[in-house]
Structure formats: structure tokens, C-alpha cells
Amino acid sequence: MRLDRTELLLLGAGVVLALGAFVLPGWLTFLLTIAFAKGLVIQGVVVQMRAGLVSFGQGLYYCIGGYVVGMGGHFAKVSDAALLLAAAVAAAIVVAMILGLLLTRYREIFFAMLSLAFSMILFGVLAKSQSLGSTDGFNVRAPTLFGWAPAANAKLFVYVATCLLAAVVAVFLHRFARSGLGSVCEAIRENEVRVEYLGVSPRWTLYATYVLAAATSALGGGLTAFATGHVDPEMAYWTTSGEFVFIALLGGTGHVAAPFLAATLFSFVRTYAIEFVPHSWQMILGFVLLGIIVFLPKGLWSLFTRFSNKGARPA
User: Fold this and answer.
1) Residue-wise pLDDT tens digits, 148-175
2) CA nearest 61: which of 122, 134, 117?
3) Contact 215, 209 (CB under 8 A)
4) In DSSP terms, which residues pair with 144 in a beta bridge?
5) Helix boundaries (H) for the chain
6) Model confidence, pTM
7) I need a labelling partner for 20 at 20 to 30 A (CA). Which of 82, 132, 188, 204 fits?
8) For residue 235, how many C-alpha atoms fall within 13 Å in the half-sphere facing its CB?
């Protein structure tokens, strides 16, 4: 398939960032790894927001992805990153196909609260499970790739893999947004009844969107587990899911790159806020979100839209 300009830019950005592993300091590559991995989870939130649904339980699939990767190495002694990430995505899809049958019957606050409830159920189960480390969680084995062990460069390997996978997923989601199904999602958000008059089932469209969001979120959770080398039940806690919604609002839904941009900015703001005001960093984040809502209600990406429109305006 022929790639358009946006898709070429996304792939190019992924390659350039991956090559940056050889020149960027270790702390920065780690911060970007976490930001891009969480950006994949936020993509799942944004995909549902475009269809009119707000998920406060996306931590459910983020946690599933992380724990499948961790359990694969902890119990099955498997360390191949490709196999573990594929298993994480497959597990999330299976769970989403089951829960989606119920959740896609609901809208607005009911969908949000039900998604949060399932995430908290998983948190409770993991917190009480002694074999999985209870509230402390457990460590994740260092990744390999088809028998090759990065050894001392494991963190750089995870960074490069995260950059490339994020670029590929971004291209896929960009193409999805431009497809017929993506257009139907936006129509459902505007007027679901009229979509039914057109002969399209809103429920099954939202079902497909829900499963897609679960897959991308699990991939982000698996990459986070590799990057941090640890998983714990906090991945499914409500504050984690709230953070994803926070970042989704920060970036906006105007472009597929917005979640990655917002996740990176969020990581930098939180890191330096904790460094300089360790006891008030939540307040700093609150002021940032308040400023975005007041001055950029459509998110950070609206800044790029404004500048591009000014540049295209004839003299």
C-alpha cells in the first residue's frame, strides 16, 4: 500500500528516535520509552473518545499486557520479546471480546464507571494473589529477540523496539481513522440514531473499537513491563487509568501523534515537578491540565493546527 505524507513522517520519526539511542543519555531514553509505551495506551483511550466513549478503566488492559509479559518469563521461563508481546495482545483481545459484549451496551458515564469497575476488580484480584507477589508485584526477565540476548544493552533494545512499534501502530491507527469504520465512529459520536438509520450497527462498531483499544493498551503495558523490569497491581489502579484520560485530554484527538506528544510532555513535567517540588507535584500537574482546558480546549495538537492554518492563509 502507498503511504501518505503523514504516514511517512510517522515512520521517519520512529526511525530517527530509534537511532537516537546511540546519542541520547540513558535517563532520557528511559523516560521516552515509558512515554511512548504509555502513548500506546492513550491511543486506545483516544480511539474510544473519537467514538464518543470515555474509558476510565484502560488500566485493565495496560495491566493485562504487563502481567502476561511478566508471567511468561516468571512461570513459563519465556524471554522472547516478540512472543511475549504477541501473547499480551492476544490475552487482551480475548478479555476485550468478552467484556465488550456487556460494555458496548452502555454509553457516557455508565460506560466509564463500568470500565473502571472491571479494572478495579483486576486490581483486587492481583493484590490478594500471593503467587503473583500481592501488592509488591514481581520482577520481569530481561527480554531477548529470537534467541539474541541484548545483555547490557537491554534498556536500549526496549527503547528502540518501543519507538519502532509506536510508529507502526500510529500508522495503522492513522489509516484506521481515515477508513470507513473510523468515519462511522465519528458519526456515532455525533448522532448514533442516524447511524442506525443508515443500516450500520453502532454497537458492533463500538465493539470493534473497544477490542482495538484493548490491543494497543496491552502492547503499551507489555513494553512498560520490559522497560521497568517490574509489574505490580498499581497498573490496574484507578489513578493509573485516570492518568491516561488526563494525558488524552492534554493531547487532544486531532492527530494520531498527539497522544505521544502529550505523554512525553507529561513525563517531563512530572519528572521535574517531583524533582523540584516533591510534595506538591500533583498540584503542578493540576495547574497544567487547568491551563490546557482553559487556553487549549482541543488539546496541545490544536497549536499545530493553528500555525498550519496561519501558514496556509493567503496574504
Assistant:
1) 777 667 888 899 999 999 999 999 999 9
2) 122
3) no
4) 80
5) 5-19, 26-50, 59-74, 81-103, 108-128, 154-178, 180-190, 192-197, 202-228, 238-251, 258-276, 281-295, 301-312
6) 0.90
7) 82
8) 33
